[in-house]
């Protein structure tokens, strides 16, 4: 029996079976053998009646948008294949980002306070043989998903939302005036919030292999030496198994959470989750200065995040909008899909409401709600620079050295540069200063990135970097357009509002220094 089998078999439920099931799904994604589902079809006949303004499929993050839209008076239904319930493990986020729940009247101040299960400070960023940077108030709040989702569910039902649990989405037929779901429900807009394995997303992407993957394993356990600080990004090993291992750790309500994560391409020979879990158990004692037999595991954690260059996803169908992990709107660097959803919640809520008011249901109009954001796309190269090809040979210390150099410069540039980056927000000025300083002080190190990431990727990145500067300029000019936009017909206003949103979020302009 392996150590992983021994340890996981001590936990309640079939955790090992769950891990192996995730590995089977991962293996099928890594080959081109996954069958493409056909769950969305089209029918040219209009529907006789359309009962709902919005139906959200999938309740984990779906309840956030469903509740926000229902509070604004829209007729909203949510269908969930199981029971709508949050997971046990906290979601980490920064405090300021949570204000949106109160602003959109989803939670009271007191409920928001109750949803905060943990809070810690400070957090560290550190790389083997290099820099150690400490920050305050970044991703240091643990939200209790069980409480959050239960409270949102109550609010959703109180404002007239309708919840259908144990109701799996099976098919959607798109008509000119709406969508028929499961041959049972009709809606003007279908929101797909079924996660990155959503059958709608898989059909839209036509079974395309992910461009990259992030694998994460970890646990929440008791028995660690007392430690009230956290790690946001830490590495203490050289390249192993063609992977740079990164660690994350923080105090949690049920003990201490520790994660091991790593980026890689989708080659079939890459590590499985089970193999990565074995690596986690091997290295955890050294990382946290603890013996495994001192720990009482509360739960094991694991998952994988497929990422696609073509993100956010633009579905080919009218009347369908992906939201949450299915949309690919989260950073390829972090697995902070909850954080990404919260950051975009206000924009999405107001945008979807305006789409309904002005009847903008074409695929092109809805795609404006999940727009191209250069601030997101530029992070692709960072992910590539933090990983190595399956057969590529690089200096085993190269990634540590590069990251250490970059964070050293960011630290010297100060909090306004460091903090947004650690919260998945890339801004032109901060990025340019960091690149210039790193390039000037570590030219040899930077030169090594070119063969590592490849010239084509670098050139592609330069286009997005250029776009980041354009979006920054356009966003700074956007207040001048406001009066003019407000005098346009409402349909035109919808387009302009979406453009301004795209410039704002696409330039990192949604971040304010008090975040
Ligand atoms: C180990 C780990 C740690 C994480 N930590 C953080 C963190 O600290 N901070 C953070 O911001 N994010 C974190 N994340 C990411 C976060 O959990 C995800 O981004 C989030 O769960 C995505 O939610 P989702 O609703 O889009 O998709 P999912 O979580 O995949 O949920 C999909 C929902 O759709 C339902 N569904 C699926 N298929 C159907 C169907 N056919 N019909 C109806 N319903 C269906 C499912 O039951 C589920 O409710 C973490 C993820 C992992 C794995």
What are the salient characteristics of this protein?
19% strand; 19 helices; 515 residues; single chain; 41% helix; FAD/NAD(P)-binding domain; binds flavin-adenine dinucleotide; 8-stranded mixed sheet; 7-stranded mixed sheet; alpha/beta; D-Amino Acid Oxidase, Chain A, domain 2; globular
Task: Give an account of the 3D structure.
It is a single chain. With 515 residues, this protein is of the alpha/beta class. The protein has 3 domains: 3-30 and 209-307, D-Amino Acid Oxidase, Chain A, domain 2; 40-118 and 135-208 and 311-370, FAD/NAD(P)-binding domain, CATH 3.50.50.60; 375-476, no CATH class. The protein has 19 helices and 18 strands. It has helices spanning 3-8, 15-30, 62-71, 99-103, 109-115, 145-158, 199-204, 273-288, 337-357, 363-367, 374-377, 379-385, 398-413, 415-422, 428-441, 443-453, 455-477, 482-486, 490-506; strands at 40-42, 52-57, 76-79, 91-93, 116-119, 123-127, 132-135, 141-143, 162-164, 172-175, 178-181, 185-192, 212-222, 230-235, 246-252, 255-264, 296-307, 320-322. Strands 1, 2, 3, 9, 10, 11, 12 and 18 form an 8-stranded mixed beta sheet that branches. α3 runs parallel beside α6, α3 packs parallel to α9 (337-357) and α13 (398-413) crosses α14 (415-422). The longest helix is centred in the C-terminal third of the chain and has 23 residues, at 455-477. The protein is globular and about 65 Å long. The mean pLDDT is 96. The structure holds flavin-adenine dinucleotide. The site of flavin-adenine dinucleotide has 29 residues, from β4, β17 and α9.
């Amino acid at each position: 029996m392996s150590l992983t089998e021994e340890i996981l078999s001590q936990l309640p439920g079939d955790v090992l079976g769950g891990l192996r099931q995730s590995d089977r799904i991962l293996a099928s994604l890594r080959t081109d053998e996954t069958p493409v589902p056909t769950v969305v079809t089209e029918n040219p006949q209009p529907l006789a009646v359309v009962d709902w303004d919005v139906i959200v499929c999938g309740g984990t993050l779906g309840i956030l948008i469903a509740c926000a839209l229902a509070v604004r008076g829209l007729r909203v239904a949510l269908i969930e294949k199981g029971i709508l319930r949050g997971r046990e493990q906290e979601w980490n986020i920064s405090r300021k980002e949570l204000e949106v729940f109160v602003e959109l009247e989803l939670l009271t101040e007191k409920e928001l306070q109750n949803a905060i299960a943990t809070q810690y400070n400070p957090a560290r960023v550190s790389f083997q043989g290099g820099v150690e940077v400490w920050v305050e108030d970044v991703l240091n709040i643990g939200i209790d998903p069980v409480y959050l989702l239960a409270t949102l569910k109550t609010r959703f039902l109180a404002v007239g939302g309708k919840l259908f649990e144990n109701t799996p989405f099976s098919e959607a037929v798109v008509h000119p005036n709406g969508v028929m779901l499961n041959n049972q429900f009709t809606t003007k807009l279908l929101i797909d919030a079924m996660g990155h394995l959503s059958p709608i997303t898989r059909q839209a992407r036509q079974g395309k292999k992910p461009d990259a993957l992030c694998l994460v394993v970890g646990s929440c356990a008791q028995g660690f030496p007392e430690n009230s600080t956290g790690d946001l990004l830490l590495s203490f090993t050289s390249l192993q198994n063609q992977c740079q291992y990164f660690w994350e750790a923080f105090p949690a309500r049920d003990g201490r959470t520790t994660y091991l994560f790593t980026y890689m391409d989708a080659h079939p020979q890459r590590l499985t989750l089970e193999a990565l879990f074995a690596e986690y158990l091997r290295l955890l004692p050294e990382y946290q200065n603890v013996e495994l037999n001192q720990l009482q595991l509360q739960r094991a954690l694991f998952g994988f995040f497929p990422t696609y260059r073509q993100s956010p996803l633009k579905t080919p169908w009218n009347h369908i909008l992906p939201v949450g992990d299915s949309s690919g709107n989260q950073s390829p660097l972090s697995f902070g899909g909850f954080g990404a959803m919260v950051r975009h919640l206000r924009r999405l809520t107001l945008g979807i409401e305006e789409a309904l008011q002005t009847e903008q249901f074409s695929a092109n109009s809805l795609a404006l709600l999940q727009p191209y954001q250069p601030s997101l796309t530029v992070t692709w190269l960072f992910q590539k620079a933090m990983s190595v090809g399956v057969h590529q040979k690089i200096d085993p210390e190269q990634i540590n050295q590069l990251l250490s150099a970059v964070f050293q410069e960011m630290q010297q540039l100060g909090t306004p540069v460091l903090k947004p980056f650690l919260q998945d927000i890339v801004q032109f000025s901060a990025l340019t200063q960091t690149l210039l300083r790193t390039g000037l002080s570590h030219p040899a190190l930077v030169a090594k990135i070119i063969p590592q990431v490849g010239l084509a990727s670098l050139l592609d990145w330069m286009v997005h970097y250029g776009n980041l500067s354009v979006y920054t300029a356009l966003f700074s000019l956007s207040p001048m357009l406001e009066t003019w936009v407000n005098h346009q017909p409402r349909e035109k206003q919808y387009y302009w509002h979406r453009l301004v949103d795209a410039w704002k979020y696409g330039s990192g302009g949604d971040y304010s220094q008090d975040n």
